[in-house]
Amino acid sequence: QLLSSGQRQLLLCETLTETVYGDRGQLLKSKERKVFLLSDLLVCANVNCKGQLEVNSLVPLGPKYALKWSTALPQVQVVEVGQESGAYDKDAVAVANAGARRHAPAGQAAHNKVYLGPPRLFQELQDLQKDLAVVEQITLLVSTLHGTYQNLNMTVAQDWCLALQRMMKVKEEEIHSANKCRLRLLLPGKPDKSGRPISVMVVFITPSPLSKISWVNRLHLAKIGLREENQPGWLCPDEDRRSKAPFWCPILSCHIPAFSSKALDLQLGAAVHNPVHSSLLGFSAVSTSLPQGFLWVGGGQAGGAGQVEIFSLNRSVPRTVKSFPVPAPVLCMEFIPEPHPEDPAEPGMPPDPAPPAPRPAVCLGLQDGSLLVYGSVDSGTPCLLSCKIPGMLPILSLRHSPQFLFAGLQDGSVAAFPRNNDGLWDAESVRMLRVGSGPVRALLPLEESLWASSQNFVTVLGMPELESQQHVFEAHAEPGAAVAQMVRAGSGVWMAFAAGAAIRLFHTESREHLQEINLATRTTLLLPRERLVRVTSLLLCQGSLWVGTDLGIIVLLPVPRLEGIPKITGKGMVSLNGHAGPVQFLALALSTLAPDALRSEQDEAEDSQEEKSPDPEGLPPREMRKKGILLQYRLRSTSHLPGQLLSVREAPPGSPGHAEEDGSIYELADDPDVWVRSRPCSRDSPRKEISSVAIVSGGRGYRDFRAESTHGSSAADSSLLIWQLPLAL
To answer: What is the pTM of this model?
Structure first.
């Protein structure tokens, strides 16, 4: 009944293992549960694997599920090890262990402690930090000794400190590893006798880190999907919604001002995403944040100065981290990534002494013809290059190839900047290529050619030689329909024009006109009286063509992902969230999760097994062999140090010397006759990448097309709308 009621949709379903822990972190019990994530509800069910027979057909029905509990999604909270202190209001909530059938002690509730499972790793980390502080005090006391002792001196004391620091690092890695497959959910429970609310901690073990990532990400997006602006967020004409897969609509994550300065009337120009991986983000933060990195947004005042705003996306809502002025309004941007280390040099060929590639950089094209190149945010956004285009012509478009940075200019020329010896762009050796008499609004680099638009024609230039015009073809019969946008989709290129509501598809090889789509048939679904519409922006992302219009409406069209001709066959969707003015740009934010996020405890255990080896030289006397930790880092013996051995026993004659150790901690295994090396730091291993994707649109204000009023806040400030897609697993 829960699965079939109303408009409820099943988003994720998986068999997870529920675990219950005691006061000391010991495992009390574990049992498989079937967990269902619905569009507004989280359901946990007991699994009855003994399928019953249907009396009439004698056909097994499969496993039966008995409801254990269900909770509304807004009340479900993911809590990681060490993060529980800020997860809820400590003064208003007591915590109970879900399976132990008892409330937390009063003192524990007051201190906001939660039983988070074996072996209470975060508490152990805090204990190690306290022990390190004590050992550092002991080290200071040891430094005051007057005598010289072989096993009690500053060398030994400093070795203790190094060992404890190493143990803390291993403990932090164990916490990170424990988070990878443990899904901890804080759920509302029944109030206690005094009426205070009780929160219940439920711990599930997921089959893999990939599963944990999927659950955290889907829970996060499902909550956002319950907001008013996403109920519904898209209008789907003539489509059967039941045939769509879960999360088939992008979810509007937030809408924010594009510029922090509200005193200036700033118009938007362009935006790019600079992906930067942050190792400081926790496991769940990575699963719920926008694509990691920084969003650069540029614009300015008409006839005045320009402005650049940089947002950090390492969270669920962007945050401004830097803002600075530029001499003129920003018209276009291009992000130049750092080349992959495997890209250069063919097999068997000597290394090419070509100019080195720069670090990731963001290029800005300004209204006054200035070309500015900045370093990434993590390097302090230094201005690496500043130059003026000959003639000081406005730069309308920027694109790059491995050899050149291309700038489309107002007079119908393309400026090609080659790389210099520093890996940047050589402004002194710029090549001016004439492609037409009208402004070059769009550039598109392909494998062996560059497409450049001028008026209603497209010129194809060969690369890397940039020889004279290879081919010129007419993209539209109307001279006023200048090509304004070009995006590639497989073996085709979609184009939008400065006039008209149509977009057209051309073949990359034959340049044949393959298809035309009229966007007016989609936009009239929201604004029936507005028959005239113009396409202002295009973006291709994960099999969908995003189309922005001058009415502020955004249309999503399905594009086949298979190789071949990417003709559009579906009706597509129209967003009910848009701008009060033209959509100035559509930008893609894309990043990949670090490979070590996919490593499970089993993978790491297998790796550490290879590192384990008996160490017979380190055996202590049999009566001293107890399970414990040998606190050492580099020293495996003190016999080589000066002074006498400080011990009640005599040192055994002929004690073997030991070389300097490699920095691992040694632990006593269950077999006390064998010393084994503890698990080393996890190492990266090749894994399938997980893509985090968001779409950013920029325009005047925000408009809810569900509202009855047909008047948007056209005088509103420039705004950004950010749509989030589920992680591509």
So the answer is: 0.76
